[in-house]
Task: structure prediction
Amino acid sequence: MWLAVITLFPDMFDAMTESGITGRAIKRGQVQFSCVNPRDFTIDNYHRVDDRPFGGGPGMVMLPEPLEKAILHAKAKAADAGYPEVPVVYMSPQGKTLNESGVKQLVQYDGLIVLCGRYEGIDERIIEQYVDQEWSIGDYVLTGGELPAMVMLDSMIRRLPDVMTDNQSAEQDSFVDGLLDCPHYTKPDVFNGIAVPAVLKTGHHLNIEKWRFLQRYQRTQARRPELLEGVQLTRQQKKWLMSEKKSESL
Ligand SMILES: CN(C)c1ccccc1CNc1ccc(C(N)=O)cn1
Result:
């Protein structure tokens, strides 16, 4: 996947490119990642990327010219790399709230340009002329779009084929089938006097699958009941649920 981020703070993205699964995916060439800094496209002596808002008010607004040049440069880079039509995504509190289905949609693209705002935001004419999709990672305000961009890109990169060691671990994630995740345990057998649930040590895979499903269902019911509306249960899961309810009513 071809990715470019337009940002005044490219060094922030070292967190994603230099470590972990995302760093490995980039080093392996599964992801082509680059940053484009609007400041490199300023022509005034002060390299201005922002200015005062028309109409007054606090703070500054990002100037449209350096952003336009940065976007066009990123599009040209994408085209040179063989990705002619790359959508531009803008991270902002005004965007559509990102969730797993949004990630699934975004990770289908061959390439993406992500625009990160600073100050009070960017000149609206850039959004009108160049932004294809506006996304938000949640209803809260941050000092810049860089962290939201990394959150979104991280959730996309881990879903690319063969990026995660066993692909299915991305498949079994929370939210993939709409349920929260089950508890996880590893060594030692007993930690601070608390033992691992016995079923997990039986090697009885069907019982373990049943236990994990029930844990996930019960956790979702307890913590995020509204998520249950969107959940499609398999016949097997329905049977497990019925038998669980029966045994509880005993
Ligand atoms: C500076 N601000 C307020 C701003 C204003 C407009 C656009 C971008 C920004 C950058 N900040 C962001 C970006 C995204 C999110 C989010 N929820 O995805 C939160 N904050």
